[in-house]
């Protein structure tokens, strides 16, 4: 059976992207850097999570950020206030970062800082629950965010994101009592798709769960080849 033109084009695009991702990861490995790729829908809390992470872990860890947005440097400017190098990538109409874009960001980064001095590169991907999961950028682990305001059915409706993620942060936990969401059902739906995923419920506002997230990040930096077994199951309302 012959492939359709669209299917063949998609395979070629993904193959070319994977080659670029492998090259990016080789650079990260050569420099001794761990790279984490943060993905979510718009408004799930990626940027505020990064703000809390930078405040807690820098300068314990030497961190740089590659910030992806369709337009503007608003989020990049927020993160620059924490004294870390931030490379902004505007994707235009593209709904995700790809390995070529991140390679360009790494090129810019090497002009700002000696990459061998870094421990961690955090990639904030474009807000989207579909495309970012399919395009690797050279990361050692994928981190997905799902806010409680998005509902408990999203893992079933957008399975690729949650199947590919190594860690899931369920964000805005402080809002759970005020929205119609079942935290136990979120956990069950996610584990149905990805039984091995690390689940960490957090609130950037109250600080709940952030220490567990910080410890998971530290584990990736020290042992990027082995995913942490740190987890915290949901408690009822």
From TrEMBL:
Domain CobW/HypB/UreG nucleotide-binding, first and last residues per copy: 38-197
InterPro entries noted in UniProt: CobW/HypB/UreG_nucleotide-bd (IPR003495), Hyd_mat_HypB (IPR004392), P-loop_NTPase (IPR027417)
Keyword Zinc: yes
Any GO BP annotation: protein maturation
Gene Ontology MF terms in the entry: GTP binding; GTPase activity; nickel cation binding; zinc ion binding
Record key words, sorted: GTP-binding, Hydrolase, Metal-binding, Nickel, Nucleotide-binding, Zinc
Database matches in Pfam families: cobW
NCBIfam families with a match to the protein in the record: hypB
Protein family per UniProt: Belongs to the SIMIBI class G3E GTPase family. HypB/HupM subfamily.
Record's protein name: CobW/HypB/UreG nucleotide-binding domain-containing protein
Organism in which the protein naturally occurs: Neosynechococcus sphagnicola sy1
Organism phylogeny: Bacteria, Bacillati, Cyanobacteriota, Cyanophyceae, Neosynechococcales
